[in-house]
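In response to reviewer comment 3 from the previous cycle, which asked for concrete evidence that the modeling workflow produces usable outputs, we include below a single protein chain processed end to end. The sequence was submitted unchanged, and the resulting structure tokens are shown without manual editing.
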Amino acid sequence: MGGQGNTMDHVTALGRRLLITTPYGTVTSYSNATGAFTVSANPTFSPATTPVAQNTFQGGGYNGASGTNGTYLQSGGNLMVNGQNFRGVKTLTYVADGVDLTPSITIDPNNPPANYAINSGGTQIQINAAGVPNGWLTATDAQIKLTSAADINGTTPVIATGF
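The workflow returned the following structure tokens.
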């Protein structure tokens, strides 16, 4: 599955099992802690080698030409985050001027919370303007941190934000 981590991502605890087939029959691993597991690829942003804000962010509220890395204004509309392996994300955390805002948003890519959506390829998260917390909208150095089911963090480039 090289290069296609999104096809294996599964954030539900014990959501994956093994099926082993031999000439003598098949066996499936148990659906408990001794036989099931969770898989997630590391979330990355666009482009994967050195993420750039103008490639990572888009949407009606994002203006990539404003400031050094662009600016997101809530009044302008939704915010899109581009990258890879987002179907393995279990939490989304807004980071304002280096401080994690709490609570983090718990994400189930198969049943995302209100105001959030992840495309089937795991390459884009859509955040409705109503889902963006006010504390993030006053940051001059705003980022979004994604945490995978394997507790690996990926953090976006910095942008400016506002209402």
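The mean pLDDT is 89. We consider this sufficient to address the reviewer's concern, and the full set will be provided in the supplementary archive.
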